[in-house]
Amino acid sequence: MDETSKPQNSSDKYRAWAVSADRFVKQPRPKPASATGRPPAPRTSLSSSATQVQLEETGITWDRSAVDWSLLERSTVDRARSRFRASLPEYIWDAAALEGNPYTLPEVQTLLEGITVTGHRIADQDQILALNDGFNLTDELVGASKFYLDKATSDEIHAKVAVYGAIESGHFRGEGSAGGGGHVSIGALGTFHASEPGENGTTLKREFSRLRAYLLEDVEDPREQAIAYFCAATRRQFSFDGNKRTAKLMMAGHLMQNSYDAISISARRQLEFNQLLAPLFDTGEATAMMQFIIDSRPA
Questions:
Q1: Model pLDDT for residues 185-234, shown as the tens digit of each residue
Q2: In whole angstroms, what is the distance from residue 80 CA to residue 65 CA?
Q3: Which of 106, 232, 263, 291 has the fewest Cβ atoms surrounding its Cβ within 10 A?
Q4: Where are the alpha helices (DSSP H) in 165-259?
Q5: Across 172-178, average pLDDT
Q6: Is the pLDDT of residue 12 over 60?
Q7: In this structure, is residue 22 part of a structural domain?
Q8: Beta bridge partners of 27
Q9: What is the extent of the structural domain holding 79?
Q10: How far apart are the C-alpha atoms of 256 and 169, rounded to whole Å?
């Protein structure tokens, strides 16, 4: 899940939908692109000093030359939105299933048609409906040309997708009355500790500002901006819960706003995704995760 530990002052009613973090296992690094049948990208890795700057500004590192960005082809905003809306039930099912929600895809489709599905907890139903609200909000913001890679947009989306499961949804950790949080168990690799929020979340807000500035000022390609944002926001743990769900929609919205199709990480590839999350949290190295996300693009 996005977070596995309860923050200070949390309620006993705190719910955890995500797959238990003890399922994370240390795995060998995925094979490079050349071993998967794709032509190898030119290797011009960042210098050690540039890598250090990347880590300090974003919380992650990646080798952009080792990721095949050409697999994401430019389209139009309208076409990207149309494909996004047509795929909403499956994308919502993907997001819910990756959090451990037991709804099947047909059941998600039925629920989104306004028909109650029996045999499930209310909490599971609420999570699906909250995701639906978040996905639709993202589409509406893109359609109105009001989607931005900023905190206000992230907070608005988080308020939708995490309304039932997160403490103080719509805010960063520390902005409300609860403090702490940001601890993620990564199995054999131990526990990842994100930054303490600081008074009124000032530390996290500063980290977000530095991340945003680096992506928009030092990274030219919107595809790279969007996918790097997902990896960085997932690792930074800006909120108590719902970080991956919010980061995925921020990634999707930024892609669509720049005329690229949104990407949904398929629930059918959950094991691969979890295996890549562990080293992302552990070291911040995001190159393998970025290629995995691109390989999850719509057909």
A1: 888 888 899 999 999 999 999 999 999 999 999 999 999 999 999 999 99
A2: 26
A3: 106
A4: 202-218, 222-236, 243-257
A5: 90
A6: no
A7: no
A8: none
A9: 45-174+186-295
A10: 25
